[in-house]
Structures are given as C-alpha cells and as structure tokens.
Here is the input.
Amino acid sequence: MSLSASGRFITLEGGEGAGKSTQIKRLAARLQDCGIEVVLTREPGGTPGAEAIRGLLVSGDTGRWDAVTETLLHYAARREHVEKTVKPALHRGAWVISDRFADSTMAYQGYAGSVGRETVTALHRLVLGEFKPDLTLVLDLPVEIGLSRARSRMQGQAAAEDRYERMGTAFHEALRSAFHDIAAREPGRCRIIDASGDMDAVAAAIWKSVAGQFGLKP
Ligand code: TMP
Here is the structure.
C-alpha cells in the first residue's frame, strides 16, 4: 500500500506506444463518475523541477548519460514528484494515477539497461523507503506494434521526446519481458493488461482490474 495515505495510488506501466495516456484519461473519467477526486500525473515529471529533469532524460543521444547517473536523475525527479505532488494528494484523499513510476526504472535501467536490479532496489529504498503503488497496470503489446505507434505519434512534434524509442529492438524486447517478470514477482500489486486490442476493450480490462482491486461497482 501507499503508506500513510488515505487516497489510492495507481500506476500505468509498459513499453512504448502502449496507449497509456489515452487509457489514463478514460480511467480518470470513470473514477470521477464514482465521485472520486482524481489527480493525473506522469514520470519523469509531475512537478516543475521533475519536468525540467525530464527534458534531460527523454531527448538527445541515446548514450548521453552514464547508466548510474541516468538512474539517479530518474530518482531525483521521482523524489520531487512523490514529496510535492503524490503524497499531498493522497493525504487529502485523492486518487493519484501516474503515467509510469518506479517499475519503469526497474525495467528500463535495471533489467534492460546495465544498472542491475539490486542497485535500483537499493536506490528505491534509500529515496522512497517502502512507498509503492496500490495497483500497477502493465499495458502489454508486441514490441513492433508499440514502436510503430510511438513513432507515428512523434511525427510533427517540435522537440522529439524519443531518446528511449531509439534504443533498438533488443532493448525493447528486454523491456517487455522485464515488465512480465516484475508483474509475476508482485501479483498482489500488478496486473498485465493486453493492450493490443481496440481502445474500448483495453479500457474495459483496466476498469475490471481497478474495480476488482478496490471494490468499486464493475
Ligand atoms: P513516456 O514516453 O511514457 O512519457 O516516458 C518517457 C520515457 O522515459 C519512456 O521512454 C520511458 C523512460 N523512463 C525510464 O527509462 N525510466 C524511468 O524511470 C521512467 C519513469 C521513464
């Protein structure tokens, strides 16, 4: 559970192009229909300082950061986000939905990158203690489909946030299996959602998981 909180903390995770942002908006609307206050946020980002760090992470050369430096930047952004946005919202009873959170660092830097799982686990404990989401939905789809969706979304954007998209198919395959492994290790918190179907089917699967986890009307 998100310790010392009265709201609920839900995170959406997955590889590139899984449709997280669309699904987050739909989930937020359904929760609001139940009379729940919802805060939508994202990582890296979610506060002005963390958004500034995001700019350093999502653009530029794929190899611009030493792997540990990159992991520390993600956790610096996360600490800001948790302390200044997530925890205050949870304390006043809001439900927070974040587009990515710590499982992304575990998957991208820990499993698929070169940092290793132990380092990410130790850093998490140092920076955030036992704080974690109440529910994590992993949107899963074949790598090629996700990358082609992500690339078409990028077209026409002025400042491309595509540093991770450019990391190559082997990296993205490793990511996909990393998210499966993360979910298998914490079945009480994580659900794998098949994101290859149409938007309505994915939204229905997400709602089923959320309603089941928190005892809401299906
Ligand atoms: P987005 O494209 O889903 O907004 O996420 C930004 C990118 O940052 C995405 O390619 C995944 C990557 N990322 C990490 O590598 N580690 C992290 O801890 C987070 C939160 C994101």
In short: The first strand starts at residue 9 and ends at 14. The mean pLDDT is 94. The longest helix spans residues 67-91.
